[in-house]
Design goal:
four-stranded antiparallel β-sheet, five-stranded antiparallel β-sheet, alpha+beta, 498 residues, 35% helix
């Protein structure tokens, strides 16, 4: 907990807050408030002085101006699906949670210009479905897409399964509207692909996790809708073979490989056991498996011989002859493809039921993944005998969710906690050795606050603090997250999934 005194805002302040958002905008039901103060896995619980849901950017502006005047701290909040505690109030009762859930309108779809303008509270799946209704495609795809909101996706620079081909969320943004900590509104909703007029302000706020301002609207890129999609589940002898399969696939598919996901057998075991309706795509047990998807915006050819699926069949047959693939199945229809993806996207949910475990969201250069896995597995097992590594993740872009199950005789989180601390250092030291990143797509939040300071250079930290002080001199925006303005301030570093 920070050293600074936690002082609950006065009743007069709360009255002014109510006057801004009205009764509909004040969350007072105890169960609803608890929802806004707890991370989705129930591992971290906070306490807020108030929870408000503004309906317009003008209300957000008035809230921030009021908080700036009184020095009250603010926690911006989207769909509460984050994994590093960035949207949870951690100070003990003096923060105001500002949920963007009521700001959920699609404002414009321009299919000709391939843009969509949305409010920050629009659920990601709604954006996907709206694009589809206009014969377009929004490529950010996450396991939590049915509940996460685009404002949170932007604030964390979310990744997902299609970064290999389309890029991460930052790549999807043309313009933003942001409310600054003092309540001023920056209108940067320009749908321009070229704008070379000084600093690119929008990129300050994308990935800042609500520490510099509140994103309220965005102009997003949308894309041609894929019409010809081939999805395969493969078994490979080792990660190095998976890397070679991916490299060759990019040529065989005319660089239309849209996803390449690495799956470990232990992770698959947990999904089959805990997620109803799932089944193994392949017969037998295979330590290393890959989910790969190719897609084209061209319709499936009438001859049936030159589309994605037959080309994928030919390529995988060649890989099997070379010993790079042990077994494979290509989805016969969209339902089977969805079933494959359901398995991949169920890792986090299965992890909630599979006993003590820890996951690291890390990245290294794609070509280093096989050697990193080999070195990191060896170091982890040596430092923490009995732990069971099961790395998986977005192999196509270098992002691994490096999971470890507790030893079989360890049955609860408290017993596993000392081992988690050991693994923190082992994994992150190995990431540093391989010139990687300790956070690939989940962000820093409170869970990795001290880890960021440990691994980033003093120069980088100084620049981050300078930006924070310039935009938020009072330090009211999402305190205790991402960066400490005063390095002497104590920090609460959560033990969340990392």
């Amino acid at each position: 907990m920070p050293d600074t005194l936690v002082t609950t805002p006065s009743s007069a302040f709360l009255g002014k807050l109510r006057a801004i958002v009205g009764d509909k905008g004040m969350v007072e039901d105890a169960q609803a408030r608890a929802f806004h103060q707890t991370d989705w896995r129930g591992l971290t619980m906070g306490q807020a002085a108030a929870v408000v849901k503004p309906a317009t950017v003008e209300e957000v502006s008035a809230i921030l101006a009021l908080c700036s005047e009184h020095g009250v701290k603010i926690v911006p909040q989207g769909g509460l699906t984050g994994l590093v505690g960035a949207s949870i109030p951690v100070r003990g009762g003096d923060e105001i949670v500002v949920s963007l859930a009521r700001m959920n309108r699609i404002l414009d779809v321009n299919a000709t210009a391939y843009t969509m303008t949305v409010e920050a509270g629009v659920v990601l799946q709604t954006i996907q479905e709206t694009a589809t209704a206009h014969d377009r495609y929004f490529p950010i795809s996450l396991g939590a897409q049915g509940s996460c909101m685009i404002g949170g996706n932007l604030s964390t620079n979310a990744g997902g399964a299609t970064v290999l081909h389309y890029g991460n969320t930052r790549s999807m943004v043309l313009g933003l509207e942001v409310v600054l900590p003092d309540g001023r509104i920056w209108n940067g909703l320009r749908a321009l692909k070229k704008d070379n007029t000084g600093y690119d302000l929008k990129n300050l706020f994308v990935g800042a996790e609500g520490t510099l301002g509140v994103i309220t609207k965005a102009v997003l890129k949308i894309f041609p809708k894929p019409k010809d999609v081939a999805t395969a589940w493969l078994a490979v002898p080792e990660p190095k073979a998976a890397l070679e399969v991916l490299a060759g696939a990019r040529i065989a598919a005319d660089d239309n490989v849209t996803s390449c996901e690495l799956v470990h057998e232990l992770g698959l075991d947990g999904i089959i056991e805990h997620i109803p309706g799932t089944q193994r795509p392949l017969q037998g047990r295979h330590t290393w498996q890959v989910l790969m998807e190719w897609s084209s915006t061209r319709p499936i050819p009438e001859d049936g011989e030159s589309g994605m699926r037959p080309r994928m069949e030919t390529y995988l047959a060649e890989c099997m002859e070379k010993g790079l693939v042990e077994d494979a199945v290509i989805a016969q229809n969209e339902a089977q493809a969805r079933a494959f993806w359901h398995i991949r996207e169920s890792h986090a949910e299965a992890g909630r039921h599979a006993g003590p475990a820890v996951s690291f969201d890390i990245s290294v250069a794609v070509e280093k993944i096989p050697s990193f896995i080999e070195a990191c597995n060896a170091a982890a097992v040596h430092a923490a005998p009995g732990v069971r590594p099961r790395p998986m993740g977005h192999m196509g872009d270098g992002n691994l969710h490096y999971n470890f199950s507790a030893p079989v005789d360890v049955k609860d989180r408290a017993q596993f906690a000392p081992t988690v601390k050991i693994l923190d250092r082992v994994v992150h030291d190995m990431v540093a050795k391989f010139d990687g990143s300790i956070s690939a797509e989940h962000g820093i939040g409170s869970a990795k606050l001290l880890e960021l300071e440990h691994y980033r250079s003093q120069t980088e930290l100084d620049v981050m603090r300078a930006i924070k002080k310039a935009l938020d001199p009072q330090g009211i925006m999402n305190p205790g997250k991402v960066i400490r303005v005063d390095p002497a301030e104590s920090a609460q570093e959560g033990s969340l999934m990392r």
